[in-house]
Specification:
It contains one helix and four strands. It is of the alpha+beta class. A four-stranded antiparallel β-sheet has the order 1-2-3-4, covered by helices on one side. A hairpin with a 2-residue loop joins β1 and β2. The N and C termini lie far apart (42 Å).
Length: 66
């Protein structure tokens, strides 16, 4: 019998760009971090860096991809 995987524990992330605040949420699963913003996601490896800093960077990238 397979064990069900625990759902992710989301944390908030927010950045300011051009005087406007943007917020999203992120979670860490092992060595991967995923940011969710407006129904879109972006995932990358943590590589030992601060999760909040990487989440901010990923949110910024999602905003550029609009």
């Amino acid at each position: 019998m397979a064990r069900s995987k625990k759902p992710p524990s989301w944390s908030p992330v927010a950045i300011e760009r051009d005087g406007k605040a943007y917020s999203a949420k992120f979670y860490v699963d092992g060595r991967l971090i995923t940011v969710l913003y407006n129904g879109r996601t972006k995932t990358t490896q943590l590589a030992g860096s601060d999760a909040s800093a990487i989440a901010s960077q990923l949110l910024s990238e999602l905003l550029r991809e609009k």
